[in-house]
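Record pair follows.
FIRST:
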Amino acid sequence: MSEHPSASPPATSGTPRFDERLSVPFWWYLPAIGVATLLGAEVHMGYPGIRSWIGYAITIPVFVVALFWLGRSRVRVAGGELQVGAARLPLRYVGRVETVPKERKQEALGPELDPTAYLLHRAWVGQVVRIEVTDPDDPTPYWIFSVRDAEGLAAALRR
């Protein structure tokens, strides 16, 4: 349960040490547009004239925006803190960093998961990282979240 001391004071501006957007795979947009088009076709068959295009005009943008919204979460190390989604943790309270491989993810998110832990899971990202919180005033024992480049995140947290 040790903290990772910083060799130099954290930067308050400039480029982040680590920045990753947990976006959905690009190919997901194609099936989403296909399903939205099918739903729009259902409306198209029921209404004549200009009203027939309302289904397409609504469903396709809604599906695209929904996928974009699902992939808007970020994992960042910048300005002396770790930011995962909307949550922030000062780097001085980052303890042990453990990469949970894809094969053990179900255990880590199921029977091993502490109900008071902070969780940000994205099913399309293979591995998760568990970070111990060393703040004595924080009731959260650890954060567990999806990240594609776990080694890059661990290196950024060690700096």
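SECOND:
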Amino acid sequence: MPAARVEAVHRSGVHGFSKHAEDAITLVAGFGVEGDAHAGATVKHRSRVRRDPTQPNLRQVHLIHAELFEELMAAGFPVWPGDLGENVTTRGIDLLALSTGTRLRLGPNALVEVTGLRNPCSQLDKFQPGLMAAVLDRRPDGTLLRKAGVMGVVLEGGEVRAGDAIDVLSSSAAHRPLQPV
């Protein structure tokens, strides 16, 4: 299997659905992606802010595996990196199989801790009808599989750009399946 890498990076300064491709993004410890509407120590997702604006932001960085875009294209959904609002598009890493708390070194300096799954929402169907169902599946045991990527917090800042290596740092803790955050 090829080494895990960053395929593309994105950000948007406004609360919209998709994010714009960038040459590089800067991750800031405890904050998220510099210049992104979802960056901050406390929640920025609008529905969560309405419920409790003091909640910690466990969604500072959104990562989606490029392989999902290939799967969606094959199913007839023209969806490209950045369209689903992720900050980092990855390749060669099974994001959905990671444990809660897994740390990812993105490029030489940035360190992100995975906090959980992105919970797909109805905005997907507004973007393209049927897309929400396409990012949901069932595991062999019948449990719901959310395929819309993972969320994380920035532990160490740094610049991240397409082509950067991704290193999965081992954890001594027992595997904790990802839950929506």
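COMMENT: The domain at 5-169 is CATH 2.40.33.20 (M1 Pyruvate Kinase; Domain 3).
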